[in-house]
């Protein structure tokens, strides 16, 4: 008998040798009713707003307010109306101009109701009229400007 130890066993390097290719589709999944479909966003955007709602909003009066908050990564924020009342929802697709709204910016806007119940309002055609003093503003392309 030989006193040599057996050669060290090598871990298998080929996928077929470890059984990864037994099921080429991966694991079996139960069929999902949403598989392959995109769930629509509940946020009303310029793209998803109906034509009639857009026309009604564009024919409405222009309001003034101050940007309460805006989160570029989330894509929405709120405006505090100058005449008081509840805050107005603001979506990123409804901001006109080259600057990202910041807290304290004075804005003008028109209003549109939010479906499906049309109980709440959304600001559309939002234009920044005065940048908040002493803040750094960012353009949509990422350039930072001090005001």
From TrEMBL:
SMART domains xref list: CSP
InterPro entries in UniProt: Ca-reg_mRNA-binding_domain, CSD, CSD_CS, CSP_DNA-bd, NA-bd_OB-fold
Q: Where is this region: Disordered?
A: 1-50
Ranges of Pro residues composition bias in the record? 1-11
Family annotation (Gene3D superfamilies): Nucleic acid-binding proteins
Keyword vocabulary terms for this entry: Phosphoprotein
| Chain ranges of the CSD domain | 62-128
Note whether Phosphoprotein occurs among the keywords. yes
Name of the molecule in the record: Calcium-regulated heat-stable protein 1
**What organism does this protein naturally occur in?**
Echinops telfairi (Lesser hedgehog tenrec)
């Amino acid at each position: 008998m030989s006193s040599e130890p057996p050669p060290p066993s090598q871990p298998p390097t080929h996928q077929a040798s470890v059984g990864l290719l037994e099921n080429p589709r991966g694991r079996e999944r139960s069929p999902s009713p949403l598989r392959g479909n995109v769930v629509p966003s509940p946020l009303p955007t310029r793209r998803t707003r109906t034509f009639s709602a857009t026309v009604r909003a564009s024919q409405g009066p222009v309001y003034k307010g101050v940007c309460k908050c805006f989160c570029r990564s989330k894509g929405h924020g709120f405006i505090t109306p100058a005449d008081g009342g509840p805050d107005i929802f603001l979506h990123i697709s409804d901001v006109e101009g080259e600057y990202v709204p910041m807290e304290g910016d004075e804005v003008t806007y028109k209003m549109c109701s939010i479906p499906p119940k049309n109980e709440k309002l959304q600001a559309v055609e939002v234009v920044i009229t005065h940048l908040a003093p002493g803040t750094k503003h960012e353009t949509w392309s990422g350039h930072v400007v001090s005001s």
